[in-house]
Amino acid sequence: GLYAWMETTQHQLELCEKSLQDYMEAKKRSFPRFYFVSSKDLLDILSNGNRPDKVMRHIPKIFQAISELQIFEESSSFTAEGLISPEKETVQLAKKTPLTGKVEMWLQRVVDAMREALRVILKASTKKYSSMTRTDFICEYQGQIVITTCQASWCSEVENAFVELNQGKANAMKEYNTFQEKQIRDLIGKVRTKLEKNDRRKVMNIITLDAHARDMIAKIVDQGVTDSDAFAWQSQLRYRWDGDKDTSVIDICDACFDYAFEYLGNGPRLVITPLTDRLYITATQALHLVMGCAPAGPAGTGKTETTKDLAAQLGVPIYVFNCSDQMDYHSVGDIFKGLASSGSWGCFDEFNRIAAEVLSVCSVQYKAVLDGVRARTGYFNFPGEEELVLNYEVGAFITMNPGYLGRTELPEGLKALFRPVTVMVPDFELICENMLMAEGYEAAKDLAHKFVVLYQLCRDLLSKQLHYDWGLRAIKSVLVVAGGFKRDEPDVAELALLMRALRDFNIPKIPMCDMAVFMGLIGDLFPGMEILAKKNLELSETCLLYTSDAADEEDSVDLGGRRIIKKKKKKKKGSKIQTMADEHIINILVTQP
Known about the structure:
By secondary structure, this protein is α/β, with parallel strands linked by helices. The protein has helices spanning 2-30, 39-47, 52-55, 59-62, 103-128, 134-140, 143-166, 172-191, 197-223, 231-234, 274-288, 303-314, 329-342, 356-375, 412-415, 428-438, 444-461, 472-488, 494-506, 512-525, 537-546, 576-590, and strands at 68-74, 77-84, 90-98, 238-242, 247-252, 255-258, 292-296, 318-322, 345-349, 379-381, 387-389, 395-398, 418-422, 556-559, 562-565. Helix 5 (103-128) crosses helix 7 (143-166) and helix 13 (329-342) runs parallel beside helix 14. Mean pLDDT is 87; it is low at 550-554, 557-586 and 588-593.
């Protein structure tokens, strides 16, 4: 009897599990972004659907840059009045959005309200831009709106310069290039002043984009381009407000995209290099031809970051998935269904780590999505499923590191669905120059050259240590430190500030065997330059007290609300190596960066 009862119970449990899976699948089809939420979180959302305040903790998993909603409770009903980003930037919705009914229904209303609010604000900012100073405009509007409006204005100004060229004004483009340089100098001056954190980020983002715009116009001038139909101009992302559609439109080559109005917060933007431009062209052309895009190249070359930045340029939500050999066709299929129905982009990192038999099924799944986009019926037939709703903005990107161990060769059927593009090492010097300008440095070009030369020489001449990193991530960290120095001491020479940032940031990780070579390189690149290290005196005294022989059991000090007590220990005689190590540790702790 017991065995039969256990079998019956097991069968009933399987029926319950299947019913629960079918229920969650129905909810995912109603609100496709649920495909990107774990089953545990989805059950919690569904069980608290009538209490929006309890669903707020899951909002960051559903929206790319919304940490919470501004909600108000009145007579046991909730309404949303605004969006709050992780950076605490706010966007007021055009009208109050009721958070009532089924959870998937009011979440869809929030998505629609978000897009409508951004569209209304962008339309208003486009009209107001010309009547305000640029710095005031940047501080008044949200970061995403500021970037989109400034880029649309830049495109309009360049088009006007081309018209003037054709009318016989030979220096029109040169004069505009000079005007761009003045704009950048004004913003560099602004970023050195006291600004709120969000305002500083907006100014830095505009400097980054303005630097690329300046370089692009300088290239047009050098090449003697006089026609707006030239490839040098057509290959750029060109923003404009389409009055007929009443929305923002982006053109690049022969492809055209409607701005998607996904809220992106106020995060940093990527420095645009010639490599970035080529990847933009290839990716947008792939989408125009109803294909995916497959960037391939060594690690650290910016494949994923460039894809994410292109999505930000078009206002499209993007989800990044780290692929592994544990993924099966069910999990990949759910991702494709979510992307296709929500109109999002998916970036599959290390896609060729997935097993070959799963990749074969993936090719059939993604082909069904692309066939639906070409058919333009609003629906697509997913393998093994009934018709699903299709949003034509869907896009898929697969990044790969070819030649690495444990990687699978993509099936030919899958290769045919993705347009390949090779990504090489980016231009570090250009990235340094743009980031130094964004941090407030005027002599950015010369300083960037010294910076890159130093790191190249360190890579070649110093010993091979496991903890050494002379790549892009380390460069960015030093530049952020240099920016802090510039804001704290604006009157000190820029060359001295950069030298101090490079010296003090790197000395703690340089072993004694490499110290003489490193300091020699610093001395050669910054001859005669002497500037004291910036130290935290309170922390310095604490470290000296803690390592002092004279300290007894009662020696203690307060540091940031924590009390550190030095217990007396007997020190071995002749411990010269230990003394040197203590001094090196203090240097690491005390030196500010």
